[in-house]
Each structure stands twice: as C-alpha cells, then as structure tokens.
Amino acid sequence: MSEHKSTTPTPHIAAQKGEIARTVLMPGDPLRSKMIAETFLDGAKLVNNVRGVQGYTGTYNGVPVTVMASGMGMPSMGIYSYELFNFYDVENIIRVGTAGSFHEDVKVRDVVLAEGACTDSNYGAQFMLPGTFAPIASYKLLSLAVAESKRLGARYHVGNVVSSDRFYNDVENSLDWAKMGVLAVEMEAAALYMNAARAGKHALAICTISDHLVTGEDTTVEERQSSFTTMMKIALGVAAADSADV
Ligand code: HPA
Q1: Atom 7 of ligand 1 has which residue's CA nearest to it?
Q2: Can you give the residue ranges of every domain in the chain?
Q3: Does the pLDDT value for residue 169 go beyond 90?
Q4: Who contacts 175 (Cβ-Cβ below 8 Å, separation ≥6)?
Q5: pLDDT of residue 2
Q6: Are 234 and 111 in contact (CB under 8 A)?
Q7: What is the pTM of this model?
Q8: How does residue 223 score in pLDDT terms, banded at 50, 70 and 90?
Q9: How far does the centroid of ligand 1 lie from the alpha carbon of residue 16, in Å?
Q10: How far is the CA of 98 from the centre of ligand 1 (A)?
C-alpha cells in the first residue's frame, strides 16, 4: 500500500497539527462530541467542523483530550482514524459508542470493552495479507480501561465484538456470532483496530449496550444517558492515566 502525503489540515479535518490532542475520543454521532466537550472538558475549543463532524479539544483533569465523531460504519471510521493516526500526532483513539448485545449476561446499559473485533466487512482486504488479520484492542488501553471500570464499580465485560457493515442484519444469522462467544454487534471497531495496527498506534472501543438482540430489551433516554456517563468516565480515566505514563 503506498503512503499518502501527511499534511494538515486534511481533506476531512480542518485542524492544524497541534490542535489535536494525543488521545482522541470518538463517538459515532457529531452532536455527541459537542455534548461530551461541554459536559466533560474544560476550555473546549472547536477544531473541526468539516461536514458537520464537530471536533473539540479541551482538557480533562488538566490533560489535553480531543473529542471528534467517527460517523457511522467502517468507511467513515476508516477515514477519520487514518487521518488522526497518520497526519496528526495522535497516539490513542478510544471509540465511545453503542452496541447491540447477543449474550444473556450482557445486559442493556452494561459496558463492553472490545478486546477483539470480528467483522463481516472486506475492510481488511486493503492490507493484502496472506491470511485473515485478527483485529485486537491495544493491551495498554484495555488494561487501563479494566482498572478504571473496576474503580468506578461499572458493570463491564471484556471480550469479542463484531463490527458489521449492516445495521439491519438478519438477526437469526447474526446470532451465529454468539455461538463463537462474540458478545455484541457494532459497526466501527474493526476498522479502528486495523488502522491502529497499521499505523503502530493504540486503539480501544468501549461500548454501552443500547439494545438486546436476544431479549429485545431496550433503553430509555434517561438510562442511555447514565450508562453513557459511565462509559465516558472510563474513557476519560484511560486518557488521564495514559498521559501520566508519558
Ligand atoms: N447493530 C449494529 N450496531 C449497533 C446495534 C445493532 O443492533 N446497536 C447499537 N449499535
């Protein structure tokens, strides 16, 4: 794969190099990044708004953090994470999103730390490997997230997710992933993990369960909000702990 010219701003991110922090938190939804910046960051400044993908850089406990949306799906996550890892000085990307549970013990509002990300996407074909790549989380970020989840007393699970190209999957068919111990379905982690691997950087997807494909259980707006806050505290705790190591 040939390398691309690594200049900033990029076609999709208007920020200058120094305006993006070492750690970037990525929700799927651009409006969420504004809300996260307003709720959790001090001195947040808008650093990107290309295509309405709002990115803010501020500080959390004095540590610089950027929050910028990935959009939905692997092509979109692929673009933003590629540019952040390769064109900016970003070391860590933490996805903060939602997922649908396949597993009885993984209940709505629980947190899933995606240790691995299976996929039904062809995203990995670009790397032209002589086999199948296993996209995994950064052990550094994952172990920090486990410590942070324990400290906060969160209900959390560590395991595999599947990143699907389709939201409207045939449920029967997608439950075959559960037979392989896969906990939940979302749409971005595998592309993020592959881009991190190729760039030699760190990635982790933290998901709250928003719906249950087996029990049909759903979340109310208020419940989504409180489990979202737990997930954000874990992610921000990881950002702060990682910076203490530098
Ligand atoms: N499928 C894919 N992505 C998701 C889901 C789902 O059921 N729930 C939350 N993100």
Answers
A1: 100
A2: 23-245
A3: no
A4: 102, 213, 214
A5: 57
A6: yes
A7: 0.96
A8: confident
A9: 33
A10: 7
